[in-house]
Amino acid sequence: MDNRKYLPAIVITVIGVIILFALSSSVFYTIQANERAVLFKKFSGGLDKDNVITQGFHVKAPWNELILFDVAETKVEETMDVLDKNGLSIKVDVSVRFYPKFERIGYIYERFRMGYVNTLVIPEMRSTVRQVMGRFTAEEIYSTKRPEVEDAIRTETAVVLGSDANNIEMRALLIRAISLPEKIKQAIESKLQQEQEALAYEFRLNKEKSEAERKRIAAEGESAANNIINNSLTTSLLKMRGIEATLKLAESPNAKVVVIGQGKDGMPLILGGSN
């Protein structure tokens, strides 16, 4: 049997398989859960920004370029020197967490290519930190208004990064540490301690004043009550109470008490009592 007639078919099949394996990496691709992609179509419109490819297995024309983005949350930490409102140098450690907006990765690539972290996120964060801290004094940044400073940096950075031009979603921004020149730090801490002591003294003073006022009001109330009682003890009332007491004493089954004569103002005089 002559197998030579099958040789061309075998050769074509082998060549086809080789070509298929060679092209498989440029035709078939898989997008992972933490990835998104867009295509650059060389012969039909260029960058396809609005069709974002999600996770899964896909097929493309071998001449189209796949642009793959890692959309997992990213953390960047920066240490920078900034100036306060009075020109004092402060060292600040800041961290920011963010990710590219999934549906906008084509627009991010068009403006920043793959280096959006270094060309967009870090410069904008550093710029905002400097601008915000330049509105406060070192004492405010270090102690009295630190939450306000952090909120302002967080809000303003999120607005800039999340704009339609930048398309970055910021998840968190934290000021991890603020370092001042040692003398300035000691002066601020000493001032804060004095202010705390002054507040404590004022609290004690107000408490003592309140207690004195309470006692004064209580004394005035007691005095007023005594005046009411004294004013109500008229001669007629006292005579009536004396007669009632005498009658109750006379009705007692116990040994009788001898009543002699009359006391002052007609009141009975009880033996053993005083005039």
Descriptive overview:
The chain is an alpha+beta fold. Among the domains are: 4-70, no CATH class; 74-185, Band 7 domain (Tetrahydropterin Synthase, Chain A), CATH 3.30.479.30. 50% of the residues lie in helices and 23% in strands. It is built from 7 helices and 10 strands. The strands form 4 sheets. A 3-stranded antiparallel beta sheet has the order 3-2-5, with helices on one face. A hairpin with a 5-residue loop joins β6 and β7. The termini are far apart.
Strand share of the residues?
A: 15-25%
Q: What's the SSE pattern?
A: HEEEEEEEHHHHEHHEE
Shape: elongated
Poorly predicted residue ranges: none
Considering the protein shown, what is the CATH homologous superfamily of the domain at 74-185? Band 7 domain
Oligomeric organization of the protein chains: single chain
Q: What keywords describe this structure?
A:
single chain; 275 residues; alpha+beta; Tetrahydropterin Synthase, Chain A; three-stranded antiparallel sheet; 10 strands; elongated
Quick overview of this protein structure:
The protein is built from 7 helices and 10 strands. With 275 residues, the chain is an alpha+beta fold.
